[in-house]
Amino acid sequence: MAGTDHRRAGVSGGPAIILVAPQLGENIGTAARAMMNCGLGDLRLVRPRDGWPSKKAAAASSGAHAVLDEARLHSDVPAAIADLVHVYAATARDRDMVKREVTPRQAAQEMRDYIAAGEACGVLFGPERTGLLNDEVALADTVLTVPLNPAFASLNLAQAVLLVGYEWFAAASAAPAERLRTGQSRRATKDELMRFFEHLEEELDRNGFMRNAEKRPSMVRNLRNLFQRAQCTEQELRTLHGIVTAFAGPRDRDRTAEEAESKSRPSPSR
Amino acid sequence: MAGTDHRRAGVSGGPAIILVAPQLGENIGTAARAMMNCGLGDLRLVRPRDGWPSKKAAAASSGAHAVLDEARLHSDVPAAIADLVHVYAATARDRDMVKREVTPRQAAQEMRDYIAAGEACGVLFGPERTGLLNDEVALADTVLTVPLNPAFASLNLAQAVLLVGYEWFAAASAAPAERLRTGQSRRATKDELMRFFEHLEEELDRNGFMRNAEKRPSMVRNLRNLFQRAQCTEQELRTLHGIVTAFAGPRDRDRTAEEAESKSRPSPSR
């Protein structure tokens, strides 16, 4: 049942997020929301100061109940990480400690690999005001530090969880770095584009805009480049055809219509 | 003076963050905090619902005054983006619009390049509840969409600003993906490590732990690999030397001391 909820919520296996002695229920709620944004479902709480469950957490979670409802409560950090193989400690402060340190991006890639190999992972986050104790950091394999403005590096709890989760999600996201949204339409084919070029250039020839024969070839190239860059859809090309026809004016349109008629119908006199 | 503040706050040129019709002062404050976390200083506000300046914004900004104090107020989006060359519209919803779409990572890289070429950039964020209007999105070159759990993709305003700013900062961050923090100490040299190996193996030979001559070579290799993996500092090696000496026991230590003495001092009888 819980699994079903998780699947419907887009939440599936990923690192455990372990909040150590969080002070405010609100922050647990916003951290749960950030987890759900990033498809993470395994929330573990070590001695939350204001007790558990928390109405304030639920209210602040913006509906991330699939995460909050399955949060597990632990009495200390060793119990919370007992089943894990790889543990990261999120901390901004430099501590006088000999410890491997990674960025969230590096951690995300490593955790993807570990979890694919069946080795469970988790990330420890300390209380809002103080962060993790040095003894808690020493229980982790690796320190995780977000590269931020060194003059102003303090993040709130949910934002720290968000950045770790965002990198986790992005590490496997199929989202291309760049794409063209086309809504209900589709990109035009080159043949459709060519027919628009011909229509446009024909009307520009007709109204005398391209009467300078010397400049005509470069003007044609420039216009074609502009409309290539615009990456038009089929629907947009139809609009552009309509605009050219509208600008061509009533007399031109009539003449064009007459010409079209005279071409398609055999002259009665012949 | 303002520039001085900005420099001290680690804030320097970057894209403008344009909040369109933000509803809550708190969210302006937390967005300013997120900007400062990421070294961004150019905040622009279009018709903030609850007026400006805002005490709630200041209280929620956790001290990001260098950003809030210089925020500029605009009456509409065209005025807010007038001096910009490249504008991104942050939006999660898919709109029936033909528009280039990028991830925050791609946007960050592009904006780094544009700004280096002297072309000012900005990112539009819509009001908390509704996001940007379609007419506002149409004023941007490109849509910026954060890859997130599609079943739960809604971010609060400050978190959206944070993810855009984080990618901006990370795109130029010199932070290595992975490094070893060594605190006050330094990584040991191979010579220091070798002397520890010899000390350890000598004591293990002495107490009979490696009496199986056939297994001795692989045991030595395994131990040496383990301590190589641990990437010890010079300080840690001194601790390990002390531990080996302590384990060797008082009689051994005495004997070792005697031997050392007998080696270093010429025997009086000869």
Low-confidence blocks of residues of chain A: 263-270
By oligomeric state, this entry counts as: homodimer
Overall pLDDT of chain A, averaged?
Answer: 89
* Chain pair forming the biggest interface: A-B, 61 and 60 residues
Question: How would you classify the helix and strand content of chain A by structural class?
Answer: alpha/beta
CATH third-level topology of the largest domain in chain A: Alpha/beta knot
Specify the CATH homologous superfamily of the largest domain in chain A: SPOUT methyltransferase, trefoil knot domain
Report the count of strand segments of chain A.
Answer: 8
Distance between the termini of chain A: 83 Å
CATH architecture of the largest domain in chain A: 3-Layer(aba) Sandwich
**Helix content percent band of chain A:** 40-55%
Report the β-strand fraction of chain A as a percent range: 5-15%
Task: Tell me what you see in this structure.
The model of chain A is unreliable at 263-270 (pLDDT under 50). The first copy, chain A, has helices spanning 2-8, 25-37, 55-60, 65-68, 77-80, 104-116, 134-137, 157-172, 190-206, 216-229, 234-247, 249-264; strands at 16-20, 43-46, 72-74, 86-90, 98-102, 121-125, 142-144, 178-181. Chain A has two domains: 2-172, 3-Layer(aba) Sandwich (Alpha/beta knot), CATH 3.40.1280; 190-264. Chain A contains twelve helices and eight strands. A seven-stranded parallel beta sheet of chain A has the order 3-2-1-6-4-7-5. In chain A, helix 2 (25-37) runs parallel beside helix 8. Helix content of chain A is 47%, strand content 13%. With 270 residues, the first copy, chain A, is an alpha/beta fold. The longest helix of chain A has 17 residues, at 190-206. At the A-B interface, helix 2, strand 5, helix 8 and strand 8 of A face helix 2, strand 5, helix 8 and strand 8 of B.
